[in-house]
Design goal:
497 residues; alpha/beta; 6-stranded antiparallel β-sheet; 18 helices; 11 strands
Length: 497
Amino acid sequence: MTEGTILIVDDDPVVRDVLLDILSDIGSYKTDVAVDGLDAVEMLKNNDYDIVFTDLTMPRLTGMDLLRETKRINPTLPVVVITGFTTIDNAITAMKEGARDFITKPFKVDKVISTAQRIIGEKKLLGKFAVKENYEASIGRLNAELFKKLQEIALLQSTSTELDEIYDNREIYDTIVAMASKLLMVHEVSFGIVENGSIKIKSALRTTATSLPLAGTIFEKVVSSKHYSIASFGEVNPLSGIPLTSPFFSIPFIIHNEVFGILSLSNKSDGTAFTEDEIYLALTFAKKASLRIENNALYEVFYNNLINTLKALVMSIEARDSYTKQHSERVTAYALQIADVMHLSEEDKNSIQFGGYLHDIGKIGVRDTVLLKPDMLTEEEMAEIMLHPVIGDNIIKPIRFFPKERELILYHHERFDGKGYPAGLAGEQIPLCVRILTVADTYDAMTSSRPYRTARTHAFAIEELRRCSGSQFDGQVVLAFLQTPAGRGEAHGNRAV
């Protein structure tokens, strides 16, 4: 005797076969398959089904369009969408369009079976109550369950969006703990990194543990099995060493088939055990967070390789001109001192750190005969030199995620009075970080030897900065520079120069 009738719609034969095996052989459901959305529409018109499982990305008719067509043919027929984890936002959109639930690839057998059982069970329950007096109460209870599901999906969507905006793994650890507490409504949460036979707690809520051995704990079981585990009442809490008074739920974070971290949850607000839906929700969240951490690590490797490549270009410029050796490093250090005095954000300081070092990268496109000329430049040669900010911007332009750094490279020869180049910006049209770099760059240029003159004294350079304050330079930036170690003032920071 079959448990119900299900239609599977997917253009991928592997996915169709896996779902078919799960639902027909293990779940004992009568199961039909459709190779795409149009095929499914014809089958829906000629057959009665209890559930439709459909992929979202298909040729001829998408899963979203099939969902709408299904609701037109049979408004009460439940639809479960199948999606990859990285496209979970599409599943949430489908829920808003009327889908009953979603499962992510690669899917687990128990999740597929439990989803089918729950939906068909609700349908049978409605059938029983349809002829009884408490029909409205049954509808109300099912609506409440659906509302709870939608709340969970909405919360998962918001956490997914928030995680995607975090690129610092040190920050993401705290975020994971806070999100998990909110998502699963638990009072005790910890996240740790697995290192050398122990787990280093990076962030935690209501626990003071910092480093624990894996041996003999639930953590060791999670690492060896690469699967979640739940410790029950009376077992030892690995974080405190005392018997548990509530279930302790540990989830592995996996990259390249290796467990690198563990998220642990305990002490639910309602005092109950973790339900199957809550376990699935936690695992889905953990996958998303793990993917974010992996992407951050890959981004960091890419970023460091990119920085090293660009630094090599700068070094090649400085190797051509001994007078400007380490000029970029000094300018960046001075600019960061000014940024400290002016209380700039860490984001702005990071932009100065990178953009300052690269601000003269465009000089790689200037001929040696011009760059190293010991005499005064001709008008033609000066025009060539004045192209280096534009050349530098063109080098960095393909790297689309460095907009502030590009400003530093392109505009560092602009003047506060609008008489600079290449764009002739004036006043606050020039970004603050650029105005800071300009003061630092000019100070270092004056106090460094050039092919056509020897280095000026610190006193001379300070007097020039004061004289040109409000014309060539932003007066507030000049005042800030005078408070830095480089300006010989009292600084808020002690960066080495």
